[in-house]
Specification:
Strand content: 15-25%
CATH superfamily: NAD(P)-binding Rossmann-like Domain
CATH class: Alpha Beta
Bound molecules: NADP nicotinamide-adenine-dinucleotide phosphate
Number of strands: 7
Distance between the termini: 25 Å
Number of domains: 1
Number of helices: 6
Structural class: alpha/beta
CATH architecture: 3-Layer(aba) Sandwich
Order of helices and strands: EHEHEHEHEHEHE
Helix content: 40-55%
Length: about 240
């Protein structure tokens, strides 16, 4: 396993859930981590637990906000990060006919455009120095469709396509790219979603991965020797 000590990383959506776990795990390996999310207070609280980390509030759906945040990150780190984890995302359930334009646009902007904006800010310099690792948090819904997932699946299918294009374009450059696609994971993302059984009745408990399961997959990909690119890991319920 390669050591990550002394590296730098940006983790989006690091104020809670899977992203907070990834930021903590990276910090524990001696990585200087930049935590990104909208809610400044929560972000600062998380960053305070991780030695040497920085909280940079940003709305990833807003190109101006991303521009300011990425400029600040490049200044703080004296360059682009070694690792970018595009994790921030939102989830809602509605059949296509009942998905509002606002919800569709917000989901595409958060789950697809936001990650692209961060890639765009850092990838040029990563390529120039022949080093870097971009981890994309997809979903099992990035290859398999589920009813009620019109906006989410459209965004995550697109995000997987972005990953696959980068993988093809970056092969041999020293910049690695990994897609991690988890099944349902027990985080706050489910708080506003009513889960129904096949008969359409609401039920609260179904098998869920633990956020640490996803963190473990991310850390596996990041700690492979430089000659190894983990293209894709799909995590489903055992
Ligand atoms: N949990 C699951 O079942 C599951 C399964 C497969 C894939 N995933 C994916 O895993 C990733 C993390 O999900 P999670 O379950 O950890 O969700 P979560 O607990 O709801 O956390 C989402 C994170 O994204 C941030 N975020 C949301 N919108 C943002 C925006 N516009 N700008 C900046 N940050 C934003 C949130 O912070 P603020 O609200 O403070 O901005 C928060 O830190 C997502 O991409 C999700 O699609 C989750």
């Amino acid at each position: 396993m390669a050591s990550l000590g002394g590296r730098t990383a940006v983790v989006t959506g690091a104020s809670r859930g899977i992203g907070a776990g990834i930021a903590e795990a990276l910090g524990g390996q001696g990585v200087r981590v930049v935590l990104v999310a909208r809610t400044e207070a929560k972000l600062k609280e998380r960053a305070a637990r991780i030695k040497g980390s920085i909280a940079v509030p940003c709305d990833i759906t807003d190109p101006k906000s991303v521009e300011q945040a990425t400029k600040r990150i490049i200044t703080e780190l004296s360059g682009v990060p070694d690792i970018l984890v595009n994790n921030a995302g939102i989830f809602s359930v509605a059949v296509a006919a009942e998905t509002t334009a606002e919800s569709f646009i917000e989901t595409i902007n958060t789950n697809l455009v936001g990650p692209f904006l961060f890639v765009r800010a850092f990838l040029g310099e990563m390529k120039a120095r022949n080093r870097g690792h971009i981890v994309t948090i997809g979903s099992i819904a990035d290859r398999t469709i589920f009813t009620g997932n019109a906006a989410y699946s459209a965004a995550k299918f697109g995000l997987r396509a972005l990953h696959e294009v980068m993988r093809a374009e970056l092969r041999g450059t020293g910049v690695r790219t990994t897609l991690i696609s988890p099944a349902a994971t027990d985080t706050e993302i489910w708080n506003s979603v009513t889960v129904t059984d096949p008969a359409g009745k609401p039920h609260s408990k179904r098998p869920m991965l633990d956020p640490n399961d996803v963190v473990g997959a991310v850390m596996f990909a990041l700690t492979q020797p430089a000659r190894v690119n983990v293209d894709e890991l799909r995590l489903s319920h055992g």
